[in-house]
Design a protein that fits this description.
Elements lengths: L2 H14 L5 H9 L9 H14 L3 H21 L13
Length: 90
């Protein structure tokens, strides 16, 4: 990995691990999401899920890719997979 790529990776990881502000948490709660220890990663995943649930093909493909990666990892580490269920209704 090039040095610039390493710096970008480290910076993004730091940003995604930051906690959300109370206003951001309240916005997620007002949408019906129950979140505990929410980080920017949580917000990104919820946004991706919302786009996928609205029918955006690229978001659907990305979610499938993430779930597929997790399933591949879980087979090797015996972790349980997580399924997102849209029970909020639009």
């Amino acid at each position: 990995m090039k040095e610039n790529d390493k710096l970008l990776y480290k910076t993004l990881k730091t940003l995604l691990n930051e906690k959300l502000s109370e206003a951001e948490v309240e916005t997620l709660r007002s949408k019906g999401y129950e979140v505990k220890n929410p980080t920017r990663t949580t917000a990104v995943m919820i946004a991706l899920y919302e786009k996928a649930s609205s029918g955006e093909l690229s978001a659907i493909k990305e979610l499938r890719s993430i779930v597929s990666e997790k399933n591949d990892d879980s087979r090797s580490s015996q972790a349980k997979a997580v399924m997102i269920v849209d029970d909020i209704g639009n």
